[in-house]
Design brief:
The protein is an all-beta fold and 733 residues long. It has two domains: 5-54 and 401-732, 7 Propeller (Methylamine Dehydrogenase, Chain H), CATH 2.130.10; 61-391, YVTN repeat-like/Quinoprotein amine dehydrogenase (Methylamine Dehydrogenase, Chain H), CATH 2.130.10. The chain has no helices and 58 strands. A four-stranded antiparallel sheet has the order 3-58-57-56, with no helix packed on it. It has a four-stranded antiparallel sheet with strand order 4-5-6-7, with no helix packed on it.
Length: 733
């Protein structure tokens, strides 16, 4: 049996070295084993979680609509990827910043999305959209905000509907809302849909449909009172939907009726509408040729010329008076109506050429909020009467892609660098984040090859760090931080493919990195002299497959590296020593009952004669646990660690010692695990559960760095409710 280093779950083979196979190779589940004895949330006072950002990924989140009851109270709704489906997204603007609000999803929903929102007051909003149930059927959905929380509103679809959708909503009070959309009848015809909320229930209002077009839909609605609403959309003129005409319908308090609307040559649609009064409405959309704006004067609709050209399309409009309207769309389009003509509002802070504005809400002529998405990440902008400015919005961490920290190095409690991996499309890219004593921020890193990860880091000052890892297909990878940016270093690649798994620096010009060759069948060591890397010959045990997983140097001529030696039916811990001239193997101890399977994954030396290495062991029956060994300058000896339940599959991954009598080791059991050495014995150091506010269901700590016996930073990975990894940082003080 080959006992390999544990790979982070769901990394599709391009993985991160962690512990030995004593730990499970699958993500924790909601029914994970209990935490180790002695750990409770209340006990975890020494360690605290530090929020860390996760890199944005493709198809992460978007905001579709926004409604403001005042300049300091806006609600935006949309969707974010929530593997394997999607989930509703709601964000709230308080006049200073955006924050995510917990939103509701119907029971059993596979996918959920919100397309429209209306807030007649700060403490009441209604959002509408649709969801896909377990049978794959799309069903209308409505949610309500009561000032404290969002809840699903019962909204039955039309009788016999095969599919149903709500695209827009308008409320004039908490007891008067109108939502519009479309549904597919039993016969397969797509027809318009209007639903009315009376404060207690939703009920369907019959809407007319043109006789000839086979499909019609309403996209938006605006009500000035309970008896005066205007809805707009489009009707397809063929079965394929390749050509369409504009559609407008009017509610007079009793019935809906179609209003004639003008059209261009082909491909016309209306996507948004806003009425300042029953006799003054603006509807916007587009055609195959350009953006489209139409005005209702109480008698008829007419086209308004707009300066937008080419592929521009409007998505939403908001009017505070008949002579003050703002329309937004794509590509990143904003125009202003002054009662006479439309004019383009310049975007001084364009996030990206692919940005799209999908919703807008104005409370005055000089106070508008627009939302949308930028390369599938949420986007918010504010109009102050003079210019648009970007307001940072939030996007829930995507459940697509993988994020995680593998190592950390600190030069003071307020200066740490953590490295790892983040998503890049469907592959992985290098990731680095910096701690400044207050918060973690992502620091851009270059990536080499199709896939890349940083697995080790060592800093000698806040402006001098070396990180190592691997890339595919290039092999070994190293990067240098100069206090301003990360840059790639030329790293020699052995004839057999290699990877660097750990690094230790005693100065900016003296670093040693270790790893493995040929899929970790042989050890690898490289040394950095401040200018270039050079491969150092390392010994391997006869008839074994060896790899070095951790390294610690106290001077350029004194380094200790640890790992594992694997034979056909056994595995033993491995230690090697650099004396300034050559590497040599040191005999190591293996715990009793290890069943011939043991590994050391991390090491820390406080002096040339005082090193501590940690890892894990297991036997063929599945029993196992944590391992700690100490080097006293002459030999390695086992230091007993606390016994943990076998089902926890515990292992230690990283260790940091500030003296021979003060070490912190981290790893995983049922969740994150930390143990402390006080010079006499190892004991469990309680850590907080994985972030419960984001549905954490377990995690592990991969690296730790202590600047004093009482001040340590640990990093790793936790798994959200879908079992996908996200970055995790914890601090001990």
């Amino acid at each position: 049996m080959r006992s390999v280093t544990l790979r982070t779950p769901a990394l599709a083979g391009a993985a991160l070295t962690l512990v030995t196979a004593a730990l499970t190779a699958t993500a924790p589940t909601a029914s994970a084993a209990p935490a180790p004895a002695g750990r409770t949330a209340a006990d975890a006072t020494a360690w605290r979680i530090q929020p860390t950002p996760n890199p944005k990924t493709d198809k992460q989140g978007r905001l579709n609509a926004v409604s403001c009851s005042s300049a300091s109270a806006c609600t935006a709704v949309g969707v974010f990827d929530n593997l394997p489906g999607t989930g509703t997204l709601v964000e709230r603007w308080n006049g200073t910043s955006w924050s995510i609000q917990a939103s509701a999803n119907p029971a059993g929903a596979f996918t959920s999305v919100l397309f429209g929102v209306s807030c007649p007051a700060a403490a009441f909003c209604v959002a509408v959209g649709n969801y896909q149930n377990r049978t794959g059927r799309h069903v209308i959905m409505a949610e309500a905000w009561n000032g404290s929380s969002w809840s699903v509103m019962p909204a039955p679809p039309p009788a016999g509907a095969r599919r149903s959708f709500l695209n827009g909503v308008s409320c004039t009070s908490a007891t008067a809302c109108t939502a519009v959309g479309s549904y597919q009848t039993r016969s397969g015809k797509h027809v318009t849909l209007a639903e009315r909320w009376n404060g207690t229930t939703w009920s369907r209002q019959p809407t007319p449909n043109r006789a000839t077009p086979p499909r019609s839909a309403l996209a938006a609605v605006s009500c000035t009172s309970a008896s005066a609403c205007t809805a707009v959309g489009s009707s397809a003129v063929d079965n394929f939907g390749s050509n369409s005409v504009t559609l407008a319908e009017r509610w007079n308090g009793t019935t809906w009726s179609i209003q004639p609307t003008p059209n261009g040559p082909n491909g016309n649609f209306l996507a948004g509408v806003s009425c300042a009064s029953p006799a003054a409405c603006i509807a916007v959309g587009g055609s195959n040729d350009s953006a489209l704006a139409e005005a209702w004067n109480g008698t008829s609709w007419s086209v308004q010329p707009t300066p937008a050209t080419g592929s521009a399309k409007f998505a939403s409009v908001s009017c505070t008076s008949p002579s003050a309207c703002t329309a937004v769309g794509s590509p990143l389009l904003a125009e202003r109506w002054d009662g006479t003509s439309w004019s383009i509002q310049q975007e001084d802070q364009i996030p990206n050429s692919g940005s799209v504005l999908t919703g807008v809400s104005c409370t005055t002529a000089s106070a508008c909020t627009a939302v949308g998405f930028d390369l599938e990440a949420t986007l918010g902008e504010a109009w102050d009467g003079t210019s648009w400015s970007v307001e940072p919005t939030l996007t829930p961490p995507s459940l697509f892609g993988n994020h995680g920290f593998t190592a950390v190095s600190c030069t003071s409690p307020s200066a740490c660098m953590a490295v790892g991996f983040g998503p890049r499309g469907t592959s992985e890219a290098t990731l680095a984040e910096r701690w400044d004593g207050t918060r973690w921020t992502i620091v851009p890193t270059p990536s080499r090859g199709d896939e890349a990860e940083l697995l080790g880091v060592s800093c000698t000052s806040p402006s001098a760090c070396i990180a190592v890892g691997r890339s595919f297909p290039e092999g070994v990878l190293s990067e240098r931080w100069d206090g301003t940016r990360w840059s790639l270093l030329k790293t020699p690649n052995p004839v057999r493919s290699g990877e660097l798994l750990a690094v230790s620096c005693t100065s900016p010009s003296a670093c040693t990195a270790v790893g493995g060759l040929d899929n970790n069948r042989s050890t690898l060591a490289e040394v950095w002299n401040g200018t270039s890397w050079k491969i150092q010959p390392t010994p391997d045990r006869a008839h074994a497959e060896d790899v070095l997983l951790g390294v610690s140097c106290t001077s350029p001529s004194a380094c200790t590296a640890v790992g594992e030696s694997t034979y056909p039916r056994s595995q033993f811990s491995l230690a090697e020593r650099w004396d300034g001239t050559s590497w040599s193997i040191q005999p190591t101890a293996n715990p009793r009952g290890s069943g011939n399977f043991a590994s050391l994954s991390g090491v820390s030396c406080s002096s040339g004669s005082a090193c501590t290495a940690v890892g894990s062991f297991f036997n063929l029956s599945g029993a196992g646990g944590t391992v700690a060994e100490a080097w006293d300058g002459t030999s390695w000896k086992i230091r007993p660690t606390p016994a943990l339940p076998p089902q926890d599959r515990a292992g230690l991954i990283g260790v940091s010692c500030t003296s021979a009598s003060a070490c912190i080791a981290v790893g995983a059991a049922a969740d994150t695990l930390a143990e402390v050495w006080d010079g006499t014995a190892w004991s469990i150091d309680p850590t907080p559960p994985s972030p419960p506010s984001i549905g954490g269901i377990g995690g592990h700590l991969n690296g730790v760095w202590c600047t004093s016996a009482a001040s340590c930073t640990a990093v790793g990975v936790y798994y959200n409710s879908a079992g996908n990894p996200l970055t995790l940082a914890e601090a001990r003080s």
